[in-house]
């Protein structure tokens, strides 16, 4: 089996595993589980981690140039080796973004719009979960509910920064840095997409105007040619005969 075939076969199953992880992790954080329910969610999260470990090892084994593949897929390695750091578990959701980007549509701008919308919603949601996980119960923390965390994530990703909710832990602040950088990047993509749309509209208008000008010139040239032909035909007939 080739690596490309393996990737095609596992693309959607991995996306399903990542979605399952997101649901279980969200349930664990929002409900603040304890006891048997917490054990169940940790077990499911551990299974999803094993699935990503197996996928990484198989891809590495099937790669023709293993060292080159390894150096170009450090994010996949991070997804595998950072499972014990709870906020960084959310790196597994990069799989969902990858699937979304590949299936967003055939038009480039359509892919960008769908990708940015999906990435923004996913980034806000997972950042809310991660910061709530890091901040809840910490001394001096103002983020104690999922609603607080969601509001903080929206304010942070848009770079508004009201300051009514803010992280106090090291993990929470690292999450905030990542969210701010992600928000700036997404806003840059949105701005570039709008700019490209405007440029395209202007270019289409210029092309339409140029085409209309060419049609007018062709019609004028045809009229001049017809007039010249008429004059040439009438020239000998209208000229005076020699005595």
Roughly what is the average pLDDT, rounded to an integer? 78
Q: Which overall shape is indicated by the principal axes computed on the Cα atoms?
A: elongated
Which structural class is indicated by helix and strand composition? Answer: mainly alpha
Uncertain runs = 103-107
Beta-strand portion reads: under 5%
Number of strands: 0
SSE order, one letter for each helix or strand: HHHHHHHH
- Total helices: the number is 8
Main pleated sheet: none
The separation of the N and C termini measures: 99 Å
Percent helix: over 70%
User: What Rg is obtained from the alpha carbons, in whole angstroms?
Assistant: 31 Å
Task: Furnish the topology, listing elements before pairings.
Blueprint: H1 3-30, H2 36-62, H3 66-72, H4 74-81, H5 94-102, H6 108-135, H7 146-157, H8 170-238
Keywords:
243 residues, mainly alpha
Report what the structure shows.
The structure is a single chain. The protein has 243 residues and is mainly α. It contains eight helices and no strands. It is elongated.
Offer a concise description of the structure.
The chain has eight helices and no strands.
């Amino acid at each position: 089996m080739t690596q490309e075939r393996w990737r095609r076969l596992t693309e959607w199953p991995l996306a399903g595993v990542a979605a399952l992880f997101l649901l279980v992790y969200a349930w664990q954080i929002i409900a603040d589980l304890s006891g048997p329910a917490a054990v169940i969610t940790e077990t499911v999260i551990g299974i999803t981690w094993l699935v990503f470990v197996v996928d990484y090892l198989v891809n590495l084994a099937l790669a023709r140039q293993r060292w080159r593949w390894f150096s170009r897929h450090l994010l996949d390695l991070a997804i595998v080796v950072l499972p014990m750091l709870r906020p960084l578990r959310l790196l597994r959701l990069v799989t969902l973004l990858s699937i979304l980007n590949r299936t967003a549509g055939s038009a480039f701008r359509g892919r960008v719009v769908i990708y940015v919308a999906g990435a923004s919603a996913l980034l806000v949601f997972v950042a809310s979960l991660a910061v709530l996980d890091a901040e809840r119960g910490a001394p001096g923390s103002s983020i104690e509910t999922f609603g607080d965390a969601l509001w903080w994530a929206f304010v942070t990703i848009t770079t508004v920064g009201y300051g009514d909710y803010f992280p106090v832990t090291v993990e929470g602040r690292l999450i905030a840095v990542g969210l701010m950088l992600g928000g700036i990047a997404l806003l840059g993509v949105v701005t570039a997409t709008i700019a490209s749309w405007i440029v395209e509209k202007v270019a289409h208008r210029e092309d339409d105007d140029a085409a209309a000008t060419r049609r007018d010139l062709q019609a004028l040239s045809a009229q001049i040619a017809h007039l010249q032909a008429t004059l040439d035909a009438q020239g000998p007939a209208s000229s005076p005969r020699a005595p």
